[in-house]
Structures are given as structure tokens and as C-alpha cells.
């Protein structure tokens, strides 16, 4: 199924604690954001990539797109203060005729075409679909440093991107969030707020978001494993 992907990539990657924003850090000699973009460029179902960038990174991003020949289906849009603002600005740039929209973190380089197909198929039926994996750790609610309760892990899932939605659903959700002043950490949370269904499909423990320095080590190991 054909789709447009909005890729928020306008953050500074503060938790990575590197001078350079994490999008540009090299994984096996290739910048992180290039790994992510190449996955969608290689998918014939991906009609357009709306990449949301920081003004401070504009020249560097343009240079990378040229160097890796990624310009053909990529459109650059300037982002906002929080991830949600960046996605909202990206959504405004989606072609009016698009029916299916995916939102995918620029910092998640290991998305697969199989996962994308499953997500778009499910979202076309339900309205929205996101990848999820079971939590590995025990999860507790804590106040200060005192444990209040242990949550029932069988009902808890870690949610990833890409998150796939029918275009009217994600547009309505973002419109509502903006009016209500609601800030969520993913798109599904905004769709939940308008009372519409979002289903989960099988995510992957490899589909990590590169967030802290340890994630870079893990990512390099994943790539090395695939090269063998
Ligand atoms: N993002 C964005 N606009 C923002 C903030 C984040 O487009 N104002 C993007 C990031 O570039 C990233 C994705 O949203 O691709 C997921 O966010 P996160 O992993 O939190 O990245 P950063 O916000 O850059 O990192 P940090 O929170 O550590 O500063
Ligand atoms: Mg962030």
C-alpha cells in the first residue's frame, strides 16, 4: 500500500551528549539519518518522505541528501520546539491526495519493509497501527524513591515507530491536540485522545531509537551482525 512518511529529525539529541546532533553521528561510516532515509527510499510503496529538520542543520542536511543521492522523493520542512510540533509542521506538507501517512523517528534506523507493510495493512482497516514489543523489565510506579506499586506487565507494551494512520485520522488528532494544548510523546497518544482506535502490530527489539551513547554501540553491533 502506498504511503507518505513524515520523519521528525529536528531535535538536538541532548541525551546523546555529543557536540554534533545525533542525526549526523556515524554508524559504520554512514550518518544515522541516512540509514533511516535509505530504508524508506528503498521501499517502492513510499511515495514521499517529508523530513522535518532544524534550521541550524539545514546546510548539513542538504549536503547529506546530495552526497547520498536522496533528493528525488525527499522534501525538507522546518521543525518546531517539541517533536509533536515538528510532526504537525510535517503533516501540513503532506500531499492532499495522500491516503496513508506514516510518522517515523529519524533516530530509528532499523525499520523494515515487512513491518511497514503490516502497519499500513492494519491501519487501512482500523484507522491507526503502531509497532509494539513486550516489556522486558518489571515496571513499577514510584514517588520520590519509594515504590508505590508494581504494574501488570502482561498489559504493558513498549511502543515504537513507524506509526501508520489514515490521513484524516492523524490530521484530526493533531488538530485536536493543538486546540486542547495537549502534548504527547507519540502520534498514537493524540489519536487515543480523540477516541479513535489504534491497533498494535509486532514491533522488533532491533527497532531501537538511538537515544543515549549505549544505543550507538548496540546499533553498530546490529549492523555488523547483518554484514556477516
Ligand atoms: N525531533 C524533532 N523535533 C523536535 C524534537 C525531536 O523533529 N523538536 C525528532 C528527533 O530529531 C528524533 C525524533 O524526533 O528523530 C525522536 O526524538 P528524540 O529521540 O527525543 O530526539 P531528540 O529530541 O533530538 O533527543 P533528546 O530528547 O535527547 O534531546
Ligand atoms: Mg527529544
From TrEMBL:
**Site residues by UniProt (Transition state stabilizer):** 15, 22
Its annotated pathway reads: Isoprenoid biosynthesis; isopentenyl diphosphate biosynthesis via DXP pathway; isopentenyl diphosphate from 1-deoxy-D-xylulose 5-phosphate: step 2/6
Task: List, alphabetically, the Pfam families matched.
Answer: IspD
Catalysed reaction per UniProt?
2-C-methyl-D-erythritol 4-phosphate + CTP + H(+) = 4-CDP-2-C-methyl-D-erythritol + diphosphate
Gene3D superfamilies found in the cross-reference section? Spore Coat Polysaccharide Biosynthesis Protein SpsA, Chain A
Give a yes or no for keyword Nucleotidyltransferase in this entry: yes
What keywords would UniProt list here? Isoprene biosynthesis, Nucleotidyltransferase, Transferase
Marked site, Positions MEP for the nucleophilic attack, at 153, 209
Q: Which GO terms describe its biological process?
A: isopentenyl diphosphate biosynthetic process, methylerythritol 4-phosphate pathway
Q: Which GO terms describe its molecular function?
A: 2-C-methyl-D-erythritol 4-phosphate cytidylyltransferase activity
SUPFAM superfamilies, sorted:
Nucleotide-diphospho-sugar transferases
Q: Which residues form a coiled coil?
A: none
Q: Which InterPro entries match?
A: IspD, IspD/TarI, IspD/TarI_cytidylyltransf_bact, ISPD_synthase_CS, Nucleotide-diphossugar_trans
CDD domains attached to this UniProt entry: CDP-ME_synthetase (cd02516)
Does the record carry Transmembrane as a key word? no
Q: Which E.C. number(s) belong to this protein?
A: 2.7.7.60
Stored PROSITE patterns: ISPD
The protein's enzyme class? transferase
Name the residues that span the membrane: none
Role noted for this protein: Catalyzes the formation of 4-diphosphocytidyl-2-C-methyl-D-erythritol from CTP and 2-C-methyl-D-erythritol 4-phosphate (MEP).
What's the family?
Answer: Belongs to the IspD/TarI cytidylyltransferase family. IspD subfamily.
What this protein is called in its record is 2-C-methyl-D-erythritol 4-phosphate cytidylyltransferase
Amino acid at each position: 500500500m502506498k504511503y507518505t512518511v513524515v520523519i521528525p529529525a529536528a531535535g538536538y539529541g541532548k541525551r546523546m551528549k555529543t557536540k554534533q546532533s545525533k542525526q549526523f553521528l556515524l554508524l559504520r561510516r554512514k550518518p544515522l539519518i541516512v540509514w533511516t532515509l535509505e530504508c524508506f527510499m528503498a521501499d517502492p510503496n513510499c511515495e514521499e518522505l517529508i523530513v522535518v529538520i532544524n534550521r541550524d542543520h539545514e546546510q548539513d542536511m542538504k549536503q547529506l541528501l546530495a552526497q547520498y543521492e536522496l533528493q528525488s522523493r525527499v522534501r525538507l520542512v522546518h521543525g518546531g520546539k517539541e517533536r509533536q510540533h515538528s510532526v504537525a509542521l510535517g503533516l501540513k506538507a503532506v500531499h492532499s491526495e495522500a491516503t496513508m501517512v506514516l510518522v517515523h523517528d529519524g533516530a530509528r534506523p532499523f525499520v523494515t519493509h515487512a513491518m511497514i507493510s503490516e502497519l499500513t495493512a492494519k491501519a487501512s482497516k482500523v484507522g491507526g497501527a503502531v509497532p509494539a514489543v513486550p516489556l522486558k523489565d518489571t515496571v513499577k510506579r514510584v514517588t520520590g524513591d519509594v515504590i508505590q506499586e508494581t504494574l501488570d506487565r502482561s498489559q504493558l507494551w513498549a511502543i515504537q515507530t513507524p506509526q501508520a494512520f489514515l490521513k484524516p485520522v492523524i490530521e484530526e488528532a493533531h488538530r485536536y491536540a493543538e486546540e486542547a494544548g495537549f502534548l504527547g510523546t507519540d502520534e498514537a497518544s493524540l489519536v487515543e485522545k480523540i477516541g479513535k482506535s489504534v491497533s498494535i502490530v509486532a514491533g522488533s527489539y532491533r527497532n531501537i531509537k538511538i537515544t543515549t551513547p549505549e544505543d550507538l554501540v548496540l546499533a553498530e553491533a546490529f549492523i555488523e551482525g547483518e554484514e556477516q
